């Protein structure tokens, strides 16, 4: 797909089907994620890929403990997706490194869409940062998670402010 089309057609997907996602597809997506720019080229990201259903269920249950209704939708996404990418980072300069990881996550979502893989960027996962650090024995900051899988349909485009609304010219 052309880059402009990939950007236009990326969506947050909250319904996945049962089609498994191959390891080589996940590796391909991560291969593009790590091409993103990073402050001082520190490449602060570290990925934990969870494909095991029992481990996904465990994470969904941990999150459900903190959950209101909006969080519960995300818990179900974690259960239903084919792979949950937990994105950790080594933080040296907080704002710089978190921006770097954000760029890396966006690359991940765009390459996924390019391959017809559906994705959801999950911020709610931060509610269980300490539990996940303990579970995976990592002394790193949790930044986000990304759910990956296949879907029967990508949702409609969600509304956006116009460029004029969010821009000022001097
Ligand atoms: C930093 C960040 C955190 C997000 N966290 C969640 C989340 O925990 N659960 C969820 O369902 N969607 C989450 N989203 C997805 C947004 O809700 C979604 O991007 C937004 O509504 C626009 O829809 P679109 O991505 O389909 O254009 C998150 C997005 C970002 C960028």
What report would you give on this structure?
The chain is an alpha+beta fold. It has one domain (3-149): NADH Oxidase (3-Layer(aba) Sandwich), CATH 3.40.109. Helices cover 41% and strands 16% of the residues. It contains 6 helices and 4 strands. The chain has helices at 3-9, 23-33, 53-64, 69-80, 94-114, 129-135; strands at residues 45-50, 83-89, 118-122, 141-149. The chain has a 4-stranded antiparallel sheet, with helices on both faces. Helix 1 crosses helix 5 and helix 3 packs antiparallel against helix 4 (69-80). The chain is globular. The protein starts with a helix and ends in a 21-residue tail after the last strand. The model has no long low-confidence stretch (mean pLDDT 97). The structure holds flavin mononucleotide. Residues 11-12, 14, 73-74, 120-124, 144, 158 line the site of flavin mononucleotide (FMN).
Reconstruct the topology from this structure.
Elements: H1 3-9, H2 23-33, E1 45-50, H3 53-64, H4 69-80, E2 83-89, H5 94-114, E3 118-122, H6 129-135, E4 141-149
Antiparallel strand pairs: 1-2, 2-4, 3-4
Helix pairs in contact: 1-5, 2-5, 3-4
This protein binds flavin mononucleotide.
Flavin mononucleotide (FMN) is lined by residues 11-12, 14, 73-74, 120-124, 144, 158.
